[in-house]
């Protein structure tokens, strides 16, 4: 029986790359998206062209009041598409960036970051836990910026640091069911994240490349396949870990 992974924010960026990497590894994927249904459907089409099953469901992780309705939609898709009541892997990828110095950060920016990256991750995992198969996996996305400092990333990095501690507690509390929970912390990656800050700003790109042992910033293909590999049975004994995938950023 195929494994089913639910990847949040899988219509673009690292989420898209992760969903496609999971499919290439032989898994089926539930793609969630906040607003761009067309992008999500493109990912579904690409996955189906690989011979795997996929569906797309809307989800705004910051709107915790909408999570119960999302869970009902998920249950319906699991029954209709796979004939199952559970899925196997949850990848909490959905997120956004707000980049400002501390004295320029607004309360709305701060609250928005924590709503998506911390509160959303916490309450989505709580709601989905009854539907996550025993022996399943959860991967939470963090950032290389929880280990180093870079001006303008204080609120974002604080939210990601909270995710890393949340991961440890999830691993402890869900471990009785054989569920492994880990954090993947990418370094600087060329995507449209944060308005394409790393991809499109040559100065920022060069700064992070100069901080990286392998001499460049990362690409989505450096991250998605790694997450897919973490979901394989080979890695069943890895849990409660922060795994940095940064090419040796500031070592």
UniProtKB/TrEMBL annotation:
GO molecular function: oxidoreductase activity
Domain Ketoreductase: 3-187
Keywords: NADP, Oxidoreductase
Thylakoid recorded as keyword: no
InterPro entries: KR_dom, NAD(P)-bd_dom_sf, SDR_fam
Family: Belongs to the short-chain dehydrogenases/reductases (SDR) family.
Record's protein name: Dehydrogenase
Source organism of the structure: Roseovarius mucosus DSM 17069
Higher taxonomy: Bacteria, Pseudomonadati, Pseudomonadota, Alphaproteobacteria, Rhodobacterales
């Amino acid at each position: 029986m195929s494994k089913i992974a639910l990847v949040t924010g899988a219509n673009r960026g690292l989420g898209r790359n992760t969903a496609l990497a999971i499919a290439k590894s032989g898994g089926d994927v539930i793609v969630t998206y906040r607003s761009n249904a067309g992008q999500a459907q493109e990912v579904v089409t690409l996955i189906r062209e690989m011979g795997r099953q996929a569906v797309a469901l809307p989800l705004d992780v910051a709107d915790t009041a909408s999570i119960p309705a999302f869970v009902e939609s998920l249950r319906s898709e699991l029954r209709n598409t796979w004939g199952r009541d559970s899925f196997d892997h949850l990848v909490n990828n959905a997120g956004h960036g707000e980049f400002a110095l501390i004295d320029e950060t607004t309360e709305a920016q701060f609250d928005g970051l924590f709503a998506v990256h911390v509160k959303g991750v916490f309450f989505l995992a709580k709601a989905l836990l009854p539907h996550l198969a025993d022996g399943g996996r959860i991967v939470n996305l963090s950032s290389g910026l929880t280990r180093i400092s870079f001006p303008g990333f204080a609120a974002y990095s604080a939210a990601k640091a909270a995710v890393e501690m949340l991961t440890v507690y999830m691993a402890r509390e869900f471990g009785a069911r054989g569920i492994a929970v880990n954090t993947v912390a990418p370094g600087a990656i060329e995507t449209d994240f944060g308005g394409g800050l790393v991809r499109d700003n040559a100065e920022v790109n060069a700064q992070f490349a100069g901080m990286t042992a392998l001499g460049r910033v990362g690409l989505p293909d450096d991250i998605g396949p790694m997450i897919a590999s973490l979901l394989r049975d080979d890695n069943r004994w890895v849990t409660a870990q922060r795994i940095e995938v940064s090419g040796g950023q500031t070592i």
